[in-house]
Amino acid sequence: MDRKIGIIGYGSMGRMLVEKFLESKSVSTENLLVANRTLEKIVHLKDKCTVCESNREPAKEANIVFLCVRPGDMKDILLEIKDCLKEDSLLVSLNGSIMFEQIEQIYKGKIAKAIPSVTAEVNQSQTLVCYNERVTEADKECLSGLLSCMGTVIELPEQEMGMGSELVSCMPGFIAAIFQELCASAKKHTSLSESQIARMVLHTMVGTGTLMLEKEYSFEDVIARVATKGGITEEGTKVIHEQFPKVADEVFEKTLEKRRQTTIKAKESFEGTR
Ligand SMILES: NC(=O)c1ccc[n+]([C@@H]2O[C@H](COP(=O)([O-])OP(=O)(O)OC[C@H]3O[C@@H](n4cnc5c(N)ncnc54)[C@H](OP(=O)(O)O)[C@@H]3O)[C@@H](O)[C@H]2O)c1
User: Fold this and answer.
1) pLDDT at 274
2) Is residue 271 in some structural domain?
3) What is the pLDDT of residues 108-120, one digit of tens each?
4) What is the domain-level CATH number for residue 79?
5) In what order do the strands lie in the sheet with 50-52?
6) From atom 36 of ligand 1, which residue's Cα is the shortest distance away?
7) What global pTM score does this model have?
8) Do both 153 and 193 map to the same domain?
9) Contact 171/186 with Cβ under 8 angstroms?
10) Index of the ligand 1 atom closest to the CA of residue 117
11) Domain span at 256
């Protein structure tokens, strides 16, 4: 029997999973079940998968159930579906702030967390996963195989999912913000158009990443190759090394603090459910 996959919540993440599973043919039309609070948003999927009128339907039928909802909606959904999940089902939360400890107050079975990044859209996600103790090696292999349709899968301990998310899930935003500033500065000194500048920088970014990964260069190696002593590049790298550490430290101080607060809030939302 083929495994059935359930998706609860058809927002940004749920839609991406549905699209990727179907596009890669990792899940067949008959094995994919989707539910969403607003049913009208999923009726158009009726030729592509089973459109479910309640969350209990995918919970009852599927072997792997993805919860693609905001943290504030998680507790009620868990209470709604806990009794109809199969004994051997794997429940996968897409949310990083809700800890296994909270979910286990309601559902005591196999649980995983999976955090994809926006680069999944071009099959370049580094999807982070972690598991509770009940998940078997076979379950891990199955989930990892499924998620590999949108990139690579990295298993981390639960306590490292926060920093892991900063590095792969938030990083596209950080990279975009840093290069947005660099491009805006470049524009002040050139008649090249914004889009020309952006394209040149983006290709250089991709090329630099590929160079480093393929040749196993460190950041220092790249700098040493480009920034010759007394040369032009060195003037720029000196400024970055002098001024940027303060910004970089503040980025992580702020985001990790926000993450801590979100985890506390998520914990509070589960209080009284034991
Ligand atoms: N966005 C990202 O880049 C990203 C990356 C990694 C992880 N995550 C995590 O993934 C989760 C989903 O994020 P998202 O960005 O996809 O959120 P989203 O776009 O707001 O989508 C949430 C979906 O959940 C549905 N929903 C809410 N309550 C429901 C219920 N009781 N039953 C069924 N469906 C319900 C909503 O339905 P309606 O159509 O009625 O609103 C909506 O379609 C979050 O926990 C987030 O932290 C997000």
Assistant:
1) 58
2) no
3) 999 999 999 999 9
4) 3.40.50.720
5) 50-52, 32-35, 5-8, 64-67, 90-93, 110-115, 125-131, 151-155
6) 9
7) 0.93
8) no
9) no
10) 5
11) 164-266
Would you say 100 and 158 are in contact if contact means Cβ atoms under 8 Å apart? Answer: yes
In angstroms, rounded to a whole number, what is the distance separating the alpha carbons of residues 22 and 43? 16
Q: Whose CA is nearest to atom 18 of ligand 1?
A: 11
In a domain, 274, yes or no: no
**How many other C-beta atoms can be found within 10 angstroms of the C-beta atom of residue 83?**
10
187 lines ligand 1 (CB under 6 A): no
Which of 157, 172, 206 is where one domain is finished? 157
Task: Choose the final residue of a domain: 140, 157, 174.
Answer: 157
* Tens-digit pLDDT profile for residues 205-252: 999 999 999 999 999 999 999 998 999 999 999 999 999 999 999 999
Answer yes or no: do 124 and 68 share one domain.
yes
pLDDT tens per residue, range 146-178: 999 999 999 999 999 999 999 999 999 999 999
How many separate domains does the chain show?
A: 2
